[in-house]
Amino acid sequence: MNTALKINYRILAANELAQSTPCPRNVNDVYSLGVNLQYCIGTRYRELADMTRTENETACIKLAEKQMEIKRRIDKAASHHLNILIQYFYEHGGPVIEDPISEDMVKEINPFYNRLMNNFLESLDEVTEKVRSGEMSIGEMETTVNRELISMFGALGNLFGVNEMRKAFHDLVEIRESVV
After folding, report:
1. Cβ count near 9 (within 10 Å)
2. pTM of the complete model
3. Side-chain half-sphere of 48: how many Cα atoms within 13 Å?
4. Which residue of 36, 87, 99, 162 is 20 to 30 Å from 54, comparing CA positions?
5. Could you give the C-alpha distances from 177 to 60, 76, 81, 160, 167, in angstroms and in order?
6. Above 80 in pLDDT, residue 6?
7. Is residue 2 very low, low, confident or very high in pLDDT (cuts 50, 70, 90)?
8. Does residue 150 contact residue 176 with C-beta atoms inside 8 Å?
């Protein structure tokens, strides 16, 4: 008897959203990346909550809600940055504001960016599977995901030679650490 593989379309959609996020060219792109990753992580916790009917379910739901709190804080930081850009725009007579990362820089950075993103998403898959199989606890998953995400944000910040981009990645780390 053949059994069909159960496909979780929420997980697929969240992964595709994270994987399709292009290499950031400006601070708003960095914040968008952060938001997309929060959806991806939150979806994993929701999936695990749906699969378990024990104390893990409550822990997973709380962790998923925590991801949405982090997402709200990232949205707030993005709005603040956008307000600063708008103020600059009006105070200086409406100049065109160029992205701090050029197309050429994106071409150089993109392979490293893609590798870091793929490694993080693979790690997320691995820890989710370990929790599913009972090899890892929800608490260990949270610690691992936080460590991996903070490490990735640090590495991404180091890829960019522009201070405002580095600061945006540092902001994502600070937001994450403030909620964890």
Report:
1. 7
2. 0.86
3. 31
4. 36
5. 18, 16, 20, 22, 15
6. no
7. very low
8. yes
Residue 147: CB atoms within 10 A of its CB come to 11
CA distance 134 to 165: 39
Q: Does residue 103 contact residue 1 with C-beta atoms inside 8 Å? A: no
Q: At what angle do helices 27-51 and 138-159 cross, to 10 degrees?
A: 160
The pLDDT, as a whole number, for residue 138 is: 92
Task: Pull the structure tokens for residue 162.
Answer: 């522009």
Could you tell me if 78 and 70 are in contact, meaning their C-beta atoms sit under 8 angstroms apart? no
**What Cα–Cα distance (Å) separates residue 31 from each residue in 126, 161, 169?**
25, 17, 8
Measuring CA to CA, which residue among 1, 23, 17 is closest to residue 162?
Answer: 23
What is each CA distance from 94 to 7, 80, 86, in whole angstroms? 49, 19, 9
Cα(90)–Cα(106) distance, integer angstroms:
28
What is the number of alpha carbons within 13 Å of residue 34 lying toward its C-beta?
Answer: 33
Question: Which pLDDT score, from 0 to 100, does residue 5 have?
Answer: 43
Q: What is the pLDDT of residue 58?
A: 86
